[in-house]
Amino acid sequence: MSQQFYVSPEQLMKDRADFARKGIGRGRSVVAVQYADGVLFVSENPSQALHKVSEIYDRIAFAAVGRYNEFENLRIAGVRLADMRGYAYDRRDVTGRGLANAYAQTLGTIFSSGGEKPYEVEIFVAEVGDRAEDDQIYRLTYDGQVADEHGFAVMGGQVEPVAQSLGSSDIAGADIAAALRAAVTALGASESDNRVIPTTDLEVAVLDRTRTQTRKFSRLSPARLDELLGDRGPGDPDDGARDDVRPGGGGGGAPATDDPRDPTDQVSGSVAPLEDPVTGEPPVAPPE
User: Fold this and answer.
1) pTM for this one?
2) Using CA of residue 267, residue 271, residue 274, residue 278, what is the dihedral sign?
3) C-alpha closest to that of 24 among 261, 271, 202, 215
């Protein structure tokens, strides 16, 4: 009969943490920035069908990095929890803090359990208030720790150069155009060079308190991004130069391939996104 090797609890937790951090570090960064009218989410994501940023409830949004199948399960669970709580009690009882606490319990239980591997994810839960002082951004790590972020927050990929670039920008109380330019510049920053990310490779969404609708979440289309970003210099590639590398593009180059650094950067082919590309609204079933 073989004897099982002993592993100390400290070493076991360290190995699980290293495993989760490596998986998260292979992805690309997601940035959350507080601006004058709400909260802005920016990520480099060429996929048209797999989103890193999504809506949870009226004033609450969700963003994640890591393994797509794992944080998609968390997103769906959050939507169900918010819908059930809002239906059973009141829509005002659905808060970002309550959702962040529920995610923290789930991630902490999975991380400390020896029966399955830890989730390789980090997530943002953000809620927009009636005033800028009421906006909330919560960052949750793979082991269930919760941090209340202010101003801006970065997770996944090369966090240090992105955070340093945002820290050197004056984005306190900025409008959406200034906040977007600072976030996109920071995402292109790295230890070796500064890249200019084309707008077709950006996934951008906002929680905008000025919207008249009850739902404050909205996605920004590439045309709207071009309008807000303006001319970014000679390094800004045009749309024609990207046809051979975009999924489903009409160029004659080699077909696009999956990015091994980010599980969400998967080739979507001709699959249309679930949301409307202009308004960001989900599809509505036709009346019977």
Assistant:
1) 0.78
2) positive
3) 261
